[in-house]
């Protein structure tokens, strides 16, 4: 099995954090077979850091979807482990990913638990954060292969507060079978914000199994420029609404698992 580590970076302001993300991918106990970084800006130092392990793609987009889709399309791994530019992996992340996909028949998506850290990488406990973040922690193992209609919500606010968010929250905690995504790249290109939710829905809509393990393998960074924090403050709601409409459309029109 070959694993691609795929990172996207949407803004130059996160370049310092991106270096930490790249280092965490490179320094795995089970290294990635390929490292792909999709960036909306040019940075020679980052390119030089990535080149021995893979390649950099320059792609400018207002949404994250086209950047993820481009990276998926040009990657060569059987499994793609996703990483946002402001997060990091623990050193044993890819070892667990490989074990899961090697041992579970029909696995399409793997989700691990994460540790909150501050801008400087110091550990944060969820009780130090808004209650929303504590609700994302799922301390039990879960295998999901359900009727996709269970995840339909009529209003975007209902979707954003659904009790199943913890099954896929944080893209950096997700790894997916590439074959489960390549036939749906047009849908991935349409996503604006919620790539984590989209990958979950796309995989389930094709009858693959989803596994959540309560093992901390990701450092999820809380900082002022964080997209999810801006959404909590009421920003980007037009994008959130369009993403919600896309989720419902996929569940209604692209569900082959019936």
UniProtKB/TrEMBL annotation:
InterPro entries: Glyco_trans_2-like, Nucleotide-diphossugar_trans. Gene3D superfamilies: Spore Coat Polysaccharide Biosynthesis Protein SpsA, Chain A. Residues 7-101 form the Glycosyltransferase 2-like domain. CDD domains: Glyco_tranf_GTA_type. This is Glycosyltransferase 2-like domain-containing protein.
């Amino acid at each position: 099995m070959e694993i691609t580590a795929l990172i996207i970076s949407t803004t130059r302001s996160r370049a310092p954090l991106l270096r930490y993300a790249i280092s965490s991918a490179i320094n795995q106990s089970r290294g990635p077979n390929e490292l792909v970084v999709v960036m909306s800006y040019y940075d020679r130092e980052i390119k030089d850091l990535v080149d021995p392990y893979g390649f950099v793609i320059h792609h400018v987009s207002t949404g994250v979807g086209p950047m993820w889709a481009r990276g998926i399309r040009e990657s060569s791994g059987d499994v793609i482990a996703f990483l946002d530019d402001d997060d990091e992996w623990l050193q044993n992340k890819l070892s667990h990913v490989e074990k899961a996909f090697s041992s579970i028949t029909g696995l399409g998506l793997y989700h691990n638990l994460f540790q909150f850290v501050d801008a400087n990488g110091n550990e944060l406990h969820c009780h130090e954060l808004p209650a929303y973040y504590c609700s994302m922690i799922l301390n039990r193992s879960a295998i999901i292969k359900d009727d996709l209609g269970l995840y339909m919500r009529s209003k975007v606010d209902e979707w954003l507060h659904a009790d199943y968010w913890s099954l896929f929250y944080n893209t950096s905690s997700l790894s997916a079978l590439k074959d489960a995504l390549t036939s749906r790249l047009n849908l991935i290109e349409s996503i604006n914000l919620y790539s984590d939710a989209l990958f979950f829905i796309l995989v389930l809509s094709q009858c693959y199994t989803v596994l959540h393990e309560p093992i901390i393998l990701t450092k999820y960074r809380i900082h002022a420029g964080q997209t999810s924090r801006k959404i909590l403050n009421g920003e980007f709601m037009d994008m959130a609404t369009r993403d919600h409409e896309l989720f419902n459309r996929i569940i209604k029109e692209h569900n082959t698992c019936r």
